Amino acid sequence: MQNTSRLFWVAFLSTCLGIGLFRFSYTSLMPLLVEQKWFTASFASYLSSANLLGYLIGALLAHPASRYIQDKKLISISAFLGSLSLLLCAIHGLPEFLYIVFRLFSGIAGATLMVLAPSYALRRVEPEIRQRLSMVAFSGIGAGVVISTFIVPYAAK
């Protein structure tokens, strides 16, 4: 069995990033971005759709991809690419299609984290710890949503 506390962090942070930040941080900023004329309201809905399409793609491809790339690497790559996509979305004035691509990749990365990381961690802990790890993993979603809906918009103002 691997270092249990590390696996708790992997599960918690992956769900925090995967759903909490990669999905909701940009969504909670949309009203402000529309107000400040970064995007129109209709284009903002396309960005949300691109992100959701990314989640569908990521959910469908995560397991098949894990046959070719180790789960540990795929989790790290997804966390990096999803974070990079959020940072790139913070650059003002890029062509609109790039924001679509960034939101798509954010969704793919988020779904990959959600599909792979909790099961990766659960497979590596003792059976008597699995229920607690599962609770911690899914509390990461709540923590990420709190960060996304309260802290990110407040910091953006």
Automatic annotation (TrEMBL):
UniProt xrefs under InterPro entries: MFS_4, MFS_dom, MFS_trans_sf
SUPFAM superfamilies xref list: MFS general substrate transporter
Occurrences of domain Major facilitator superfamily (MFS) profile (ranges): 4-157
Membrane-spanning parts: 7-26, 38-62, 74-94, 100-121, 133-156
Pfam families named in the record: MFS_4
Keyword vocabulary terms for this entry: Membrane, Transmembrane, Transmembrane helix
Official protein name in the record: MFS transporter
Keyword Transmembrane helix belongs to the record: yes
MF terms (GO), sorted A to Z: transmembrane transporter activity
GO CC, any one term: plasma membrane
Superkingdom of origin organism: Bacteria
Organism encoding this protein: Acinetobacter ursingii
